[in-house]
């Protein structure tokens, strides 16, 4: 396959897709108070609702998909929405109360530029973290493999 052929595969199939932008972020989240499974589910749902609200305020034409993955030592949750607050779902395996977890958020929006999608995702996370008394930290550095 020639490089030009590869570029043709990566090009939007339809001009409609040209207005779609996405942003993803990953971080660790910490809390001074133990976070119960119920509180973690509320956090995930609130994050989805806050992103939806921000999308509407910024003038997004459509929400393609907003998804959050939360994993920790004793459980895993995923939350998602395609824009309707009534259809926000939070599913997965609850775990023991925790003080930290890893979070990945993916936002796919139509009708907003890349910077707006990034701004919406980051502002929404910052707002919900503050509401729940949590802090964002970078992922821990990977330890080199032992030889």
Describe the 3D structure:
The protein is an alpha+beta fold and 147 residues long. The chain has one domain (14-137): GMP Synthetase, Chain A, domain 3, CATH 3.30.300. It is 33% helix and 38% strand. It has 3 helices and 6 strands; from the N terminus they run αβαββββαβ. The chain has a 6-stranded antiparallel β-sheet, with helices on one face. β3 (75-81) and β4 form a beta hairpin. The mean pLDDT is 87.
Share of helix among residues? Answer: 25-40%
Taken in chain order, the helices and strands follow as HEHEEEEHE
CATH architecture: 2-Layer Sandwich
Count of individual helical segments: 3
Q: Tell me the span between the first and last alpha carbons.
A: 38 Å
Kindly provide the radius of gyration, computed on alpha-carbon positions and rounded to a whole number of angstroms.
Answer: 17 Å
Which residues sit in consecutive blocks of at least 5 with pLDDT less than 50?
none
Count of beta strands: 6
The percentage of residues in β strands lies in 35-45%
**Which strands sit side by side, in order, in the main sheet?**
4-3-2-5-1-6
Summing up helix and strand content along with how strands pair, one would put the structural category as alpha+beta
CATH top level class name: Alpha Beta
Tally of distinct domains: 1
What does the main sheet amount to?
6 strands, antiparallel
CATH fold title: GMP Synthetase, Chain A, domain 3
Q: What's the average pLDDT?
A: 87
Q: Estimate the global geometry from the Cα principal axes.
A: globular
């Amino acid at each position: 396959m020639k490089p030009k052929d590869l570029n043709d595969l990566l090009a939007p199939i339809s001009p409609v897709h040209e207005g779609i932008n996405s942003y993803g972020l990953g971080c660790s989240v910490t809390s001074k108070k133990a976070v119960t499974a119920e509180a973690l589910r509320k956090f995930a749902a609130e994050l989805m609702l806050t992103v939806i609200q921000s999308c509407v305020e910024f003038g997004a034409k459509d929400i393609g998909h907003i998804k959050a993955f939360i994993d920790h030592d004793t459980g895993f949750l995923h939350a998602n929405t395609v824009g309707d607050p009534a259809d926000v779902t939070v599913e997965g395996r609850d775990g023991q109360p925790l003080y930290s977890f890893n979070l990945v958020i993916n936002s796919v929006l139509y009708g907003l530029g890349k910077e707006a999608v990034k701004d919406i995702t980051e502002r929404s996370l910052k707002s919900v973290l503050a509401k729940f008394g949590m802090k964002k930290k970078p992922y821990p550095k990977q330890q080199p493999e032992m030889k």
